[in-house]
Amino acid sequence: MQKDAPAPLEIVLITGMSGSGKTVALNALEDAGFYCVDNLPPELLLPFVELEQKHQARRVAIAIDVRSATSLPLVPHQLASLRSRGINVKSLFLDANTDTLVRRYSETRRKHPLSQLDAGHGEQDARRALVDAIELERKLLAILREEAHVIDSSIIRPSQLQGYVKTLISSSQDQLTLVFESFAFKRGVPTDADYVFDVRMLPNPHYEPTLRHLTGRDAPVAEFLQAQPDVERMQHHIAQFLENWLDALAHDHRSYVTVAIGCTGGQHRSVYLVERLAQRFALDWVTLKRHRELDSV
Asked: What is the largest CA-CA distance in the chain?
């Protein structure tokens, strides 16, 4: 009897901004059964993978950060080389807005890896130096961000981030994954979105006393919105846009496309449209959905 071929090695590369949650993401992958390595220099990526293949490893997660700044340009070519060998490679980039990163560093009293400021300077000088370090880090990591699926951790809890990471790594690598995300404009636009649709002009269930405490996942809200011609027209327009361009995005070797739909509070209209669109596109695409504001409750 012929033995089945061994499953290909699965690698998840975690990169991103310092303070954006890379350690949380690695912990989530470790819980999911990955062998995790933090702060691997890019020069060692290919030799490390070859070693793991000799050990017949199946799931490996690797974190690379800005401390390897001079060799970061090597990474895209290395990932392409690994994929050409039949290795399943997923790349995730953890991001957060500058204000959030400054707050996190202030709370932990940690020093940014690119900070050149010595102790003894004033608070304003320290903040300016930190912001400068963060913006420099963005520039140095831009080459990795462009080739990865981005997760914005600015206003989500660590448990949400862990859930997002586990869901993403469980999706198929062979087909483009479509991520629908609802959000509240009052809490900011997700920086991980490839496309953003503003639906704040649609009828708002918030002003219906019997619907205010419910969400777009509840039947009474869904029935209310389904009866609104403008809501159905918006849903059709978003779906039509995606149907026109998803094949082209897939042919461009995109692994993930994130479609963010925002309303005022991220509770009714955006949630309803994410649910409906995810249901529609799940027939033909690997489809995930997130509700940023509901998931954070």
From this structure: 73
